[in-house]
Amino acid sequence: MRRLALIALLAGVALLLCGCGVSGEVENQAYVLVLGVDRADDGQLELTARVPKIGKTKAGDSGQSGGDYLTFSASGIEYPQALEALEQATPRQMNLSHIELLVASEALAREPGFASLVERIAETPHLYTTARFVVCEGRARDFIEAQETAIGTRLSSEINAMLEHYAQRGYIPDARFADAHYLMGSVYGDPVAILGSTARPAESPVLSLIGPSSPVEGISSPMGQRFSGAALFREGRMVGALDARQVMLLNLIRGDVRAIPFECDGRSYTLTREGHVEREVHFEDGGMTLSVSARLATLDDVCETDAAQLEDDLEAALRDVIRECQRVGAEPFGFAERAAGQFATLAEWRAFDWRSAYADARVEADVRVGNSAAEMIAN
Amino acid sequence: MTLAISGRPARAAALAAVAARLFLGLVVDAPTTQNGAWLSALIGGALAAPWLIVVSKFRLPGMVFFFPLGLWTLADGANVLAAVTRSAGYLALDRSASLVLLVPLGLAILWCVWRNGDAVGYAAMIWARIAPALLLGVALLQWRYFRPEWLRPLLGEGWPAIIEGCVRSAGWIVAASAVLAFPEDDGDGAAILPALLGSAIAAALTLLQFMLVPTQAGGGWLNRLDALLCNGRTPLYLQLPMIVLWFVGLFHLLACELFAASACLQRLLPKADGRLCALFAVAAALMLSRSNALPARMVAFSGWGFAAIGTATLLSLLTAKKGGGRPCADSH
User: Fold this and answer.
1) How far apart are the first and last CA of chain B?
2) How many CB pairs under 8 A join A and B?
3) DSSP for A269-315, written as a single string
4) Residues of chain B contacting residue A178, judged by C-beta atoms under 8 Å apart
5) Most buried by CB count within 10 Å: which residue of A305, B4, B22, B108?
6) How far away is chain A from the Cα of B8, in angstroms, using its nearest Cα?
């Protein structure tokens, strides 16, 4: 009897331990899947939320866009006011814990105060900061409204599957909002964001494919959005962009992709990373050298002459992408954290003028390409 | 009822509590050392070792020892309680009054302490076996996100900050391992090694955390908690084990500190029943934790706390040796 009473008491206490005053029914929530941030024409901050409808869809509607999702927008002088206005515009309790995509317009990302806006957004209670971070050309609201499900039936899984696919191919960086937030306030390098556009590939200056012989005009797709390339940040604001080809090389240097397609002398190769790509920073004669060293393998037939040409082209391409980032002053490669490791304390590291040293640094690239097929046969 | 704890559970309680307290202090409460936090935890352990030896080997007499120790454990317990409340507010409960959370938590702690020290200690022993498995699962699932480069510069903000951090750590170790000062007569003695192992575990945990999030220029308490529980790489399914690790770890720490505070009160008022002392200590901690100024004051005072408790311990030891009080008795 005493044991039963104890069990009943413990069960009662367990109910209290959750501390829930108000339960949150699913139907009473507006689960935001995509949150957009814009600078409106009147200078106010505009927030846009894409929310799924909960409940049955009409027969034959499943998988169709538009009918299953709603878009709400609201403006405010600053972020808290805009968020409050969005809460008013949304007819349910806005739930930000399942966000898949956080979109900022390019114009806003280029503003000097963008880092503090990112911080404010990251501090929003219950906002899922693991969401992917996108900077879009044009207005974020237009970009979000163009969002549609093409292959999948749910927008959340559609976004995830699509961006995972692009990130694995290397066309975009696997950029999370939290990473952007942490790196903007950190003592190391700079973050990147996925570059998005509603424009067709041929209309967009930052979108291109693997090589010059693969013209973007050749693409045909029912999707209203494009994700390709990366936005570069420096000191918390966007300063430039990389196209899909450059992002593949960036991902290769960072070790974020296993294989990349690469075009050389009119031929396409698939190059697979063997081990880590070494990134080093050397200090010498008052200057600094950034070096990248990669061992790659290809299953394609490649003779010695072709391999040498491939190595030269790839080294040149790696140097070019690093120089492009040096030119705009962004450091997304991870050289800064390696350089910081050569200092004893953070104070010494902060006292070192990393930005100037990085901008003037020499760049070295060393690539070795082996033929996997030949090696496999030899072994 | 006399509040006391036998050797084995005391060792387990000290291990779990020290690891949780140092991690809370060095990563979330006051990360002033940044990458150097692991050194602060290890040196803090070495600094607190003489105090741990004294309290585990001798029974120190009266007011001079138990009054400051009781105050310190009570204040630190209230600070941990405040951390639990803020964590709950961050996660999902910000629409509930903090009292709705605090009262059941206080009741749970009270029930633990009423079952006496062994209940607190054996609960920590079970936790010490479950936590590594949870931690291993979390670490393995996040393995590819660890960036060893972010641990450098290894000295973080430099030696002055590390020294400040290790004195603070020593203060936190004193509060978390105060259970060692209340051995049962027939206990098998409370060795100091587990408490020191707790500081080594905390050092390792800080290294893991700093490998997940780059060294930050700023950010507040909730920002750091966010970096701990949802660091931008954690999928939703992984957040549950991390939240369990965080809250259950803090619960055991809280139970240890409030048990020690209750036991100190009972040593000061020997005729008082242990249950009454526990009720008073838990109620006082609940009230103290509602002060907004407490966390910042506890960070500022943590180094001084160690100095004060160390001096009080030394004075008690000298008084007893000179025969001014009861002679020091080996607890074995």
Assistant:
1) 22
2) 112
3) EEEEE-SPPEEEEEEETTEEEEEEEEEEEESS---HHHHHHHHHHHH
4) 227, 230-233
5) B22
6) 26
The residue type of A249 is: L
Contacts of residue B153 in chain A, CB cutoff 8 Å?
A: 340-341, 343-346, 348-349
Distance of alpha carbon A290 from alpha carbon A282, whole angstroms: 7
Residue with tokens 């002053």: A329
Q: Distance, in angstroms, between A175 CA and closest chain B CA?
A: 10
Token readout for A116 is 């503090």
Which homologous superfamily is B7-321 in? Hydantoin permease (1.10.4160.10)
**Residues A105, A39: contact at Cβ < 8 Å?**
yes
Could you give the domains of chain A? Answer: 29-257 (no CATH), 258-379 (3.30.300.210)
* Chain B residues closer than 8 Å to A179 by CB: 232-233
Domain ranges, ordered by start, for chain B: 7-321
pLDDT tens per residue, range A204-256: 444 444 444 444 555 666 666 677 789 999 999 999 999 888 999 999 999 88
A-chain residues within 8 Å CB-CB of B227?
A: 178, 182
SS3 at position A342: coil
- Contact criterion met (CB below 8 Å) for A232 and A240: yes
State the amino acid at position A74 in one-letter form.
A
Residue from B226, B240, B243, B248 to probe the interface with A (highest A Cβ count within 10 Å):
B226
Interface confidence (ipTM) of the complex:
0.80
By the 8 A CB rule, do A272 and A296 touch? yes
